[in-house]
Amino acid sequence: MSADAQKRLAAEAAVEKVEAGTIIGVGSGSTVNHFIDALAASDIEIEAAVAASEASAERLRGHGIEVRDANSVSELAIYVDGADEINRHLQMIKGGGGALTREKIVAAIADRFICIVDASKQVTALGDFPLPVEVIPMARSHVARQLVRLGGRPELREGFATDNGNVILDVRALDLSEPIHREQQLNDIAGVVTNGLFALRPADELLVGTDTGVQRFT
Ligand code: 5RP
């Protein structure tokens, strides 16, 4: 089974978690695209969604699903999103698509974070995937120097701007064996908007699409 078919399986399993009449948070990426399509094809009618990227908002609207601004809701029943890597504590690296900051905001508003991935995303240790760090453009060089000091090898994501108008530094070789500490430390660098470690707020439930079906972890 292809990775894409595994993503679709996980996405369809997440649709079963959605309660009619609720407002839900929706992340971004190819797995989330499957979720949006499967939700639209189901008979579950939600009140509205808060989207973590312009691309997801557009896809939701394309299916006739109302999209609300995050500031207009005080709570979300669930947040469904993918990940680039996820460990057994359900801590993640996210931001491969560059939507990490809005993803972290919507995840913070939600009661439950349901992560949907294909089997390749499960790892024993975070860090093979370069860690995305969203940076205010004028701080790019300063932040890169601080990341090098911490042992990382930052690389500017060329030709890319986030939905917030910022740049992304993709960082290799950082020791992520203490993800909570590292997430806080990176966020303390002046000019960092946020980083792609989701350890302070890990997922609550993980749905993994595999060749033999969906595996669930809490
Ligand atoms: C985007 C993300 C995505 O969730 C992550 O990159 C996974 O993407 P995909 O579902 O396409 O594999 O964090 O910023």
Features:
29% helix; 27% strand; 218 residues; alpha/beta; globular; binds ribulose-5-phosphate; 6 helices
Describe this structure in words.
With 218 residues, the chain is of the alpha/beta class. It is built from six helices and 13 strands. The chain has helices at residues 3-15, 30-41, 54-62, 100-109, 140-149, 179-187; strands at residues 23-26, 48-51, 76-81, 85-86, 92-93, 110-118, 131-135, 153-156, 167-172, 192-195, 197-198, 205-210, 213-217. A six-stranded mixed sheet has the order 2-1-3-6-12-13, with helices on both faces. A hairpin with a 5-residue loop joins strand 4 and strand 5 (92-93). Helix 1 crosses helix 2 (30-41). It is globular, with a radius of gyration of 17 Å. Ribulose-5-phosphate (5RP) binds next to helix 2 and helix 4.
